[in-house]
Amino acid sequence: MITDPISDYLTSIRNGILANHRIVEIPASNIKKDITKILFEKGYILNYKFEDDNKQGIIKIALKYHPVTKQSAINKLERASRPGLRNYVNATKLPRVLNGLGIAIISSSIGVITDKEARKENVGGEVLCYVS
Known about the structure:
With 132 residues, this protein is of the alpha+beta class. Helices cover 25% and strands 30% of the residues. Strands 4, 5, 6, 7 and 8 form a 5-stranded antiparallel sheet that branches. The longest helix has 14 residues, at 5-18. The radius of gyration is 15 Å and the shape is globular. The N and C termini lie far apart (31 Å).
């Protein structure tokens, strides 16, 4: 049986948005923490907090909504690479999400970064997910 923790992480965020939750709690791992930091830096989530529960830890994510329309800042959150079919790209073939309006999160040799940072550093890697 193969599990995909990154896909579970993205699904938890999507389900929280569909249910209009303010906060989503997700079991932590280092790659999930890196993805959470990127989502915060790019303005897709309001805030985050890493809590230690004497096990693997918990990530608490405060979802971001528009104050008037109540629409989420995240319109689409899609897994690109999965355990059964890894999606690796080199620096020249990095994907563009909505012509640069969205981001692709890449796991590269220098860490978990966005597609724009990967272009700037001229590195490729595994495309984890697309966010718009």
